[in-house]
Amino acid sequence: MPDKSPLTLYLAAPRGFCAGVDRAIKIVEMAIQKWGAPVYVRHEIVHNKFVVDRLREQGAVFVEELDECPDDRPVIFSAHGVPKSVPAAAEARQMIYVDATCPLVSKVHIEAERHFENGLQMVMIGHEGHPETVGTMGQLPEGEVLLVETVEDVAGITPRDPKRLAFITQTTLSVDDTAAIVAALQARFPAIIGPHKEDICYATTNRQAAVKEIAGRIDALLVIGAPNSSNSRRLVEVGRAAGCGYAQLIQRADEIDWRALDGARAVGLTAGASAPEVLINEVIDAFAARYDLTRELVETAVERVEFKVPRVLRTPA
Fold this sequence. Notes:
Helix content is about 35%, strand content about 20%. By secondary structure, it is α/β, with parallel strands linked by helices.
């Protein structure tokens, strides 16, 4: 067998699961333990096929809308958050429901409500149709939240009163892109009020910073994550913007395009906030099988955040 080519794999850290994802998965597992299967989950609990399939095997049933759930089985709302109309409908049907919304998303919901109560109209920086954006906009009455996705969109919005505005953001956006949109909002609406602490969550920020740190040392970047995972897709964009000529999103090791990596001496590896460590290890093993591999950990932050599961799951049935 020919000698393996040498390759250095730069492992970005932090990577993979964040506290909100960890909590959401625990909520589904504990609900199945408490109430037995099936437990219904409205929307994928987190955007990762491997995680969803594993929970499905344990007895979770994933649906897109509440009307697909029977009245007599528990339902869980995904980590991305839901419009206010969803828990209201569950209560009207006297359903048992558990809200797995990430606490950092809930913080944005509370912020939006507080501004609304103070008579301000909201501008939301987010991706149209993403469940988190739909959930956040659904906290307030129709027309109270104006959505912008790009710097160009800022010129096209017509608020009720330009002097009475506040902005919020989806928690999984690109830090750099969002900063440009915020600057455009502040230039057009000097009185606009921003959050006390930025809405982009610590995990998104940390994972993007780690990618920027390794970008100058690598020939290619692989991001493990799902195509519908906003924070994973942003990591690919951040890698490209930081100078990675080849940056690719993969779900599993079998999606690696080895021909595209031909000649690479250094590859960066990270994972979105909803990708489990087992998939990261699978990719590392695939590289070890093909190359004379050197692993280098590049750690830019240490995360110690933990979120408690709802009280209803901490008490016996």
